[in-house]
Each structure stands twice: as C-alpha cells, then as structure tokens.
Amino acid sequence: MVTMNFYNLLASDEGGIASAIKAKLNAWSDPKYFVTATVVLLILALITYRRWTKPRNAALLGLFFLAFYVWSATDRNFIKIIAKPDNVPITIMLVATAVVTWLAFRQAAINDERMERGEPLIESGADDKVLVWPDLVYTELICLILCSVVLVVWAILLKAPLEPAANPTNIPNPSKAPWYFLGLQELLVYFDPWIAGVLLPLLIIQGLVVLPYIDKNPRGNGYYSFKERKFVISVFMFGWVIMWIVLIVLGTFLRGPNWNIFGPYEIWDPHRLAALLNVNVSDIFWVVLPSWLDMSWWKPGLPTESFMGIPAYLIRESPGWILLGFYFAVLPGLLAVTFFKKIYKDIGFIRYAIFWSLMSWMFLVPIKMVLRWGFNLKYFLAQTEWFFNV
Questions:
Q1: Is 286 exposed, middle or buried (0-12, 13-18, 19+ CB in 10 A)?
Q2: How many Å apart are CA 359 and CA 245, to the nearest integer?
Q3: Total-model pTM
Q4: φ, ψ for residue 66 (rounded to 5)?
Q5: What CA–CA distances, in Å, run from 225 to 58, 269, 309?
Q6: What is the mean pLDDT of each run of 10 residues along the chain (390 residues)?
Q7: Nearest to 351 by CA among 228, 217, 153, 188
Q8: Could you give the CA distance from residue 373 to residue 366 in angstroms, rounded to a whole number?
C-alpha cells in the first residue's frame, strides 16, 4: 500500500513530486536555459569523455534516459507531441546521434589511453580489405531486409503525416517547416531571413566541412583521437550538436502556437500571449544610453538630420557599423596574438583568415541568442534602407 501511494504521488498530474518536476522542466525549457544547459553538458562531455564512454557508465546513462522517457510518456501533453507521426523521426535521430557519438568518443578514449601507455592503436594492423562477394553483398542484403521490415512496421503503426490541400482560411498554428529545416526556421527568430535561411546555413555547413582541411595537424588522421585534436573536434561538435541538433529539437518539441515556447508538459494554448520588446543597438545608443546617463547636452532620440554630408540613417546605425567592424575586422587580429596565437602560428595567415571568416558567423549565432534572451536585442545593425539587417 505504501509503495502504491508513493507511485501515485510520483506519477500524478495533479500534485506531488511529479508536478514539481514537470513545473521545473517546463520553466527550464525556455531557450536561454535549455540551450545554455546543452552547451554546459557538451563541455562537460568533452572534458570527461573517458569516463562516460565506458560501457558500464554509458549503459547507466542510457537506462536513466530511457526510464525518464517512459515516465514522461505517461504525461498526456508530452506523449501528444512525441507521438506525432512527423515527430517520431526526431526521437530516432536523437537516439542515433547519441549512439554514434558514444561509439566515436569511446574509440577515441581507448586510443588516447593506448598512446599514453605506448601501446598500438585500435586501427594499427587492421586489414580493411573486404571482398564484394560474399562479404559486402551479404551485409547489404541483411541491411536491406532489416530496413524493409522497419519501414513496413513503421507504415502500419503510424499514419502518414499527410496534410489536406492548402486552405488560406485554415492555416496551421504553428506553421512549421519539415523537421530537417526547423533549425533554420528557429534562426529566423534571431536573424533576417536572408541571413538565417541562406547565409548562415551555407557558412556553418561549409565551415564544418573545411574545418579538417584548415587544421594542418597531421595527428589524428586515419584513427580516432580526441586528445590530439581537441580544438577542431570541439568546434565541430559545437556546430553540429548546438547549431543543428539542439535547434531542431527546440523547433520541433518546444515551439508551439504563435511560435511561442511551451514546456514538454504544457498544453499548447493558442491564446497565450507573449510580450516582446525588440530593441536595436541604435536604440540603446541613441535613446536608452542618454536617458540612463541623464546628460542634458545629449537629448535622447534617433538622429533625423544629416551631418557633414553623412545621411541621417548612416549616423543612426553608426554604432552598429562600428560594433560589427570590430567583431569581423579587429577582433581576429587581437585573437591571433592572444587566445589563438598557437593556432595562427600553426595554420598561417590564409588558413586563419578563412577559419575566422567561417567561425565568426557560427559564433555570432549564440552571441545573438544570448543578447536576444537577456536584452531583447533584435539587430546589431538595422540598415533597413539597404535591406541590410544583422
């Protein structure tokens, strides 16, 4: 009887431990907490990769998340979102991402430990030659059969997420892109469409592709190792996990009606209002700062008149131009002689210029997110006269 009462207290939706846990998780689902927590977890995972990749520790983590997932599935709002046919691939993607990440870092941990002991690597002496028949064809046949079975069972158990013909009087709320574009749609909250939909995806993906070629370090080629290429692998993991996987999860499970944020255990209420106050750097410099400093000789307000032949709209956005100019032009030089001194020395000027031109845009995404969450900052530069907003 005591055990049953404790279970009811834990699983109840109306009160007790379960409600407290769900309320906390709903509050922590706000992007400023959710994304920040994933960044912290990624850093901890990279630091402690030799510990959590051990089979016993990985199994315990897997069982914990499985138990947590099963417990969460008892919540009607959670299962309503997770069980949507077009959201099922996201869950499969998360499991596959966890498995392949563990496999890669486990082999890297083993190799790093072997190198420290002076032992041969896992890949040393391995014969990678495989006969087309029967080895390759036999393996492909098994994979074909298994994939066919999975797809047939999937098609039987889940209805195809087909929508009716487009109807301008009945628009879906929220109106979402396919799951593989939800990361880009999430970027629209922080950037102009031409940056979020064209420039950033191109530069981030291109940066992740060319990153191994920018790094001239010959160690780590042909075998798994994290210790010998920590910086490059860390940057890649940040771009892949945070800038892609996390944004897809955020757009799939947490973005609800009117593109508001809802916790995993909340009802998607289309009538919930979210007050937003968007400000730009020009507003802060010309309006907020003079009012805050209370300077009588500097009247708050955006410039409306030209000065010495310079148009008023350029004067208005001059703080944004200076700020972005420092970030893209001055900061690379400062980093080259301080924090990135060793990297600059190893890869040279040309590779470093390419590296920073690509990485700067990737790093601009979390910077913009933090400023949007903390200060409601919309644009560094709002040059609407030229359709140039950053």
A1: buried
A2: 18
A3: 0.82
A4: -65, -45
A5: 19, 48, 59
A6: 44 67 88 89 92 93 92 90 86 90 93 89 72 85 94 86 79 81 85 85 80 78 86 87 87 87 88 78 84 70 81 88 92 89 85 86 86 86 84
A7: 217
A8: 10
